[in-house]
Design a protein that fits this description.
The protein is α/β, with parallel strands linked by helices. α6 runs parallel beside α8 and α9 packs across α10. The longest helix has 15 residues. The radius of gyration is 18 Å and the shape is globular. It starts with a strand and ends in a 6-residue tail after the last helix.
């Protein structure tokens, strides 16, 4: 099997205090607590604004060895610029401090807005820009603009692979041409469970699989029952051993490249009723995924 990472999307939620987090735990220690329960977390703040190097460094220091962060790409590129003219904004994202995560830097998540339709040339151009390792990312980061003067991090401790996953929210992406583009660039299609609100196809397009579970019945709120978690456990086992579920919902008839194993990243985003961390822990138990920092 490939390595299975199961975690949560974000960690700073007032409703979690006294429920998931122990009563009296100070906010500054919440990440450290969450990272000792779960092996991975999606960084959400990077989606809303450019973070700073000292923040990334503090997150690195607060988490144990072996922990992994997924970093959500900034919405200025995806939602405002709609993937056009993004060379300098992409450099700003890469220079904003993420290199401080060092070996804890996992995949980058790029969430497209619901209004963005599939246009092959635009999507291909975007995917072509994304760096495949931290060395390429550093070269791109040096093109940042004056917004980051005095606050850019332009140093890496090692050249490491850098993976990317794309979450789409418009039905026009459900087509073989989009799947072919993702495979061409070795970018993962995000398998997204969105309570039926957005597309939910599951084609394997890269050497890893990225899953986001937003809620089974109610977006961001409802939890997952035992039978649903077992279904996701079965699917993750299939993906991690290089295959795919027999009932996978596919946009393309073209089979993915054969592999003996694939890494899997799975994040629960049903945070409103404090279900995300509990569901993540239950899924880990079903898969016998151990985390002993």
């Amino acid at each position: 099997m490939g390595t299975i990472h199961i975690g949560i999307s974000g960690w700073r939620y007032p409703a979690w205090r006294g429920v998931f987090y122990p009563p009296g735990l100070v906010q500054a220690r919440e990440l450290g607590y969450a990272a000792r329960q779960l092996p991975t977390i999606e960084l959400n703040g990077s989606f809303y604004s450019l973070q700073r190097p000292n923040s990334y460094a503090a997150w690195y220091d607060a988490t144990p060895p072996g922990f992994v962060f997924a970093v959500k790409g900034n919405r200025f590129l995806t939602h405002m610029l709609k993937l056009r003219g993004i060379e300098t904004p992409l450099a700003n994202v890469l220079a904003s401090g993420m290199f401080a995560l060092r070996e804890k830097l996992g995949p980058m998540l790029w969430q497209f807005p619901p209004q963005l339709r599939f246009e092959p040339e635009r999507i291909d151009a975007f995917l072509s820009l994304l760096p495949h390792d931290t060395g390429q990312a550093l070269l791109l980061a040096r093109g940042h603009d004056d917004k980051l003067d005095g606050r850019a991090l332009l140093e890496i401790d090692a050249v490491r692979p850098l993976r990317h996953a794309v979450e789409v929210r418009h039905e026009s992406f459900r087509c073989p041409a989009f799947i072919a583009l993702l495979r061409k660039h070795n970018m993962a299609l995000v398998v997204a469970d969105t309570a039926g609100k957005w597309p939910d196809f599951e084609d394997v397009t890269a050497d890893f699989v990225y899953i986001r579970l937003h809620g089974e019945h109610e977006l961001y709120a409802s939890g997952y029952e035992d039978d649903s978690l077992q279904r996701w456990a079965d699917r993750i086992r299939a993906w991690s051993t290089g295959g795919q579920p027999q009932d996978a919902r596919l946009a393309s008839d073209e089979a993915p490249a054969r592999r003996k194993r694939r890494d899997v990243y799975c994040y629960f985003d049903n945070d409103i009723k404090v279900r995300a961390p509990q569901d993540a822990l239950r899924l880990m138990a079903l898969l016998d995924v151990a985390w002993n920092p």
